[in-house]
# Entry
Amino acid sequence: MMLQETFPNGIWLIDFEFRPEGGVDGGNPEVVCLVARELFSGQLIRCWQNDLAQMDSAPFPIDNKAITVAFYASAEMGAFLALGWKVPVNVLDLFIVFRSHLNGLNPKFGFSLLGALTYFEISSIGDQVKDEGRKLALRGSPWTEEEKIFLLDYCQSDVDALKPLFENLLPYIDWPRIFLHGTYTVAAAHIERAGIPLDMETLKITKAKWQDIKEKLINEIGAQYGVYDGIVFKVKKFEDYLRRNNIPWPRYPTGKLDLSDETFKEMARVYPQLLPLRELRVTLSQCREIKLQVGLDGRNRTLLSYYQSITGRNQPSTTKFIFGNASWLRGFIQPRPGWGLAYIDYSQQEFGIAAALSGDQNMMAAYKSGDPYLSFAKQVGAVPPDATKKSHPDEREQFKQCILATQYGMGASALAVRINQPEIYARELLNYHRTTYKDFWRWSDRVADHAMLTGHLWTVFNWRLKVGNNPNERSLRNFPMQANGSEMLRLSCIMGTQAGITILAPVHDAVLIEAPLDQLEEAAAQMQQIMKEASAIVLGGFELATDVKFVRYPERYMDPRGIHMWNTIMKLAGLDDRIHTDA
Amino acid sequence: MDNSKKITVGSIDLASIRLSQDYTADHGVEKVLTHVPIQKTRKGTFFRVHPGEEFQLNAATIELKVENAENYLLTTDVLGTLPDMERLVTLRLAVDKFANPFLIPVPLPTPDGRRNSWSESLAQAVKISETRWVRLSSNMPGGCYTLHVATALNDEPTWPDLGFGEIIEIAYRGRIISSPEHLVIRQLLGLA
# Structure
């Protein structure tokens, strides 16, 4: 591509310095300064916050004949929104290019700007200067003239580093798809700016009593199991509990119990009586303190940390982001008076993607039935054609677990544990999947062969995976489902924000939106339509369905897995009136 | 989706930038059959037997039951060397529900036309399994196999994409005896 001819208004490398509103993490950005430099002419723009506040648009071209280049651009787009400026048409995020270029290979110095510069052996200011600059920006005004110059120089050093980085990454930029990914940085900025409304009063009381609550929690929940000694989880006592309750528990080859959260999660599915214990363990490990990042306006805001996982999904902080935390904390989510929330998620997204991308007719028919799990059971003749969720709940559950097991790449032994059946039965179920969905498995084999032989895979919008030295075949097979699912949700967020819908958070295969109560259902219906269109674009015409759950003020958002813990904690906090009554 | 509706983000026509996920490029990868078990029945497994004559072979075999049963195929050059151990069988190609092939050795009647009740019931089962999915279980008091026919299974079996000669070669790889000097013969004759 002839860049100068295609983009005659310039390729603008930019960086903003900013601090969170009021200096409180979780606040929206207050812009401190901007530096922009045009790639070819070298034209330099340096603006301090008071100059920027006077401008009603960016001081450089942002139309379709120009490109705005940044590293981790949602921060820059957040600054555009904070200044009330129109966002650029073409955004190129070098972080996304770099991440995609080396995705799967784990570069030694990571995916930060410094890591990228080090990877290409580009000299840059050291960590120490960067830290100093960041601290000075965060400190807030007033800044001396020297400090202003220092901050502008510091900001410019990042911009100057973008030029060689751009030149090194140029061969790997996939035009024009990279602009679609760039558009997601704008959507991410909108989402990060919106934040998630919290019931601050309940949060403050809970935080104030948290140390006391934790101890009581162990007494309250831990005592039911007899596995804690003070605040320490005792493995021996847990083994006794398992023996008393006749629960077979996975062990490591050494014979020790596998106490990973993943195993606890699995086992709690099979033995629901373990759910409160698992939630307690997660709470105690994740919530030594409640570290949710909340702005002065009572809204939870964090970086979405987009494209941070291999599949391209967001990976926000597990302590600062409310959906990354233990599920009971979601009870703090509460819309403002007069407002409501809608949580809209794709129905069986991975199954639908697998069906559409592999072109397996049986699988597509099962998805379209609206209940792929029951449909699968019908397709193999395990239940009669007129079976329903009500008439055959156990069979449906087993075929559901089989489908989920194939998506996770689970073997017969793990599936046997999950469905609490002998291994031979689990093996038979997995074999049914292979024989019923033959075209899917043929396609899946091609995906694995392609990855192993060529060393890479890609999504419909070219988020790439490189196969490293120690490839995991199950992950490779699963990549198209996960990574295209990620594309689908990104596209939904882009189309949703462009349609004026207030998206508060993307959550794996779902979005949380906000609207005034009288517009909530309409906004949710519009978002559902957008998500349907996004699925059809990603899947070449095959549409995925969505489910919606409403939360209307004064209701609070509640994750079913966290209700028991929420209610226990509210009781211990002396907030009995906030106990979830549908529990 | 209404395909006539062009969906764009900015100036990008999304349909036009969508990359295929077919992964159809031919990388010359094919599954190779490396193991074909030889067994009369597979416990608890429904199977079908290929009806074609080109998938049948009358042969002489020896089964050694030392640790795991080992099946050897005798060529005509060594036929009659070990008359008390040789078994004349018809080798039949079978597959289970999951397209795993195996060979069933169906004992041939003795020269006077007789077969024991186990062999007779096996031969009958094999005949029925040419058109139906069946499984066998041992009926010890009756001295025969009990035949179970899957009345609800109508799907056709998936046969291996190989000729019968190749399948036999895989099944008996390293276990075809074509000379009296073969170690197995020498051992059985007390010569080694």
Chain A has a mean pLDDT of 93.
